[in-house]
Amino acid sequence: MPIRQVPIGSYLSIDATQLQVLIAALRGLGYRTVGPRIADGAIIYADLHSIDQLPLGYIDRQDGGLYRLEKAEEAGYFDYVVGPHSLKNYLFPPRETLLESVRENGTVRMTPPEIDPTPLAVIGVRPCDLVALAIQDKVFLGGSYVDPAYKARRENLFVVAVNCRRAAATCFCHSMDTGPDVRGGFDLALTEVDGHFVIEIGSAAGADVMVEIEWTTAPRRDVEEARAISDALKDRMRKRDQVPYSQQQGTRQRFMDTTDIRNLLVDNLEHPRWEEVAERCLACGNCTLVCPTCFCASVEDISDLTGDNVRRERAWDSCFNAEHSYMNTGTVRKTIASRYRQWLTHKLATWHDQFGTSGCVGCGRCITWCPVGIDITEEVAAIRG
Questions:
Q1: CA proximity to 169, closest of 375, 332, 383, 16
Q2: CB 363 within 8 A of CB 132
Q3: Considering only CA atoms, which of 281, 197, 182 is closest in space to residue 233?
Q4: Secondary structure (DSSP) of 169-210
Q5: CA-to-CA distance for 106 and 126, rounded, in angstroms?
Q6: What SS3 state is found at 73?
Q7: pLDDT tens digit sequence for 95-112
Q8: Cα–Cα distance measured from residue 193 to residue 223, given in angstroms and rounded to the nearest whole number
């Protein structure tokens, strides 16, 4: 039997079968368990009850406007990279009710909706998405105004993170210093090593869950090997940055030079590149929907036919929509060029002024899920000249 007291920062070792015990332990503690599953040709987050539902033996091939799942015999449980979902889908859901108004006997009663108290455990969270979570915490919890629904969900969140063993061509987390290794903000962190898992304990809640699982103390060689996996991946990503795009073989690899990037963009608001990218951009908003940090939303009141029941709902919006900049004089950003410029300069430049950090974590989703393959790293490089 395992020792019950596990210090935070400890490294434990479990075999793959204990993943099922981990899921069962979380569910036994009342958590709704969510993890990576294959659906509609992609790996998404969905309810997870069994390790048989995990994408064992699959990897994802990603490039500008391209996402494909492929079978790979050597692939482990978490050797895909990132899909279209992130933690944002659960903490800041695509649509939610903010207020309900009911009129009865001439009296109007307005109440906020009840927040589901069920705690959530998400398995398979990537390093870049952990940084994105910290960024969204600043948006919804920082400052004078706190979003109560986000706060309630955040306090009930259990994170099982995964250190990356491979990177897609669209990944540039090393440029943004957000990966490919997990650095904090998790309860448990997994690294797959030769058919078993090395687990780092990141919180007291994570230590409590491990009480239910058969584990052994990870030997030093396993800990060093787990660290070496992330270090080797980061080295490979850095080395590919030294090869010019024109000389890279096969799929092009991404890199973003972030040197003085705020002033670079703010000082080039009239750069001709904005018009060039607008000729390709469809203003569909895909990039903002899959981005793990974008938080634009619209609010609308929805009434029944009698007017006695009204819901005030918040739904994801996008700065690529013309209505997003609508004011009493009309739409402010009338062109696609102005909307793309708004998105990119906010994400990489004025986000620093607003929240003290970049709004980009280098996950590459905006490149993959753009229908015309617009590449954020390429646009920054073009403006840098």
A1: 375
A2: yes
A3: 182
A4: TT--HHHHT--SS--SS-SEEEEEETTEEEEEE-SHHHHHHG
A5: 52
A6: coil
A7: 999 999 999 888 888 888
A8: 9
Give the predicted TM-score (pTM) of the model.
Answer: 0.93
Q: Which residues contact 328 (CB under 8 A, 6 or more apart)?
A: none
User: What are the tokens at 14?
Assistant: 């479990």
CA torsion 226→228→230→236, rounded to 10°? -150
Q: Positive or negative, the Cα torsion across 322, 327, 330, 336? A: negative
CB 230 within 8 Å of CB 18: no
349-376 pLDDT tens trace: 999 999 999 999 999 999 999 999 999 9
Query: Residue 244: which pLDDT band, with cuts at 50, 70 and 90?
Result: low
pLDDT tens figures, 191-213: 999 889 999 999 999 999 999 89
Tokens (6 digits) for 242: 């030294």
Is residue 311 predicted with pLDDT exceeding 70? yes
Among candidate residues 102, 124, 104, the one with its CA nearest the CA of residue 113: 102
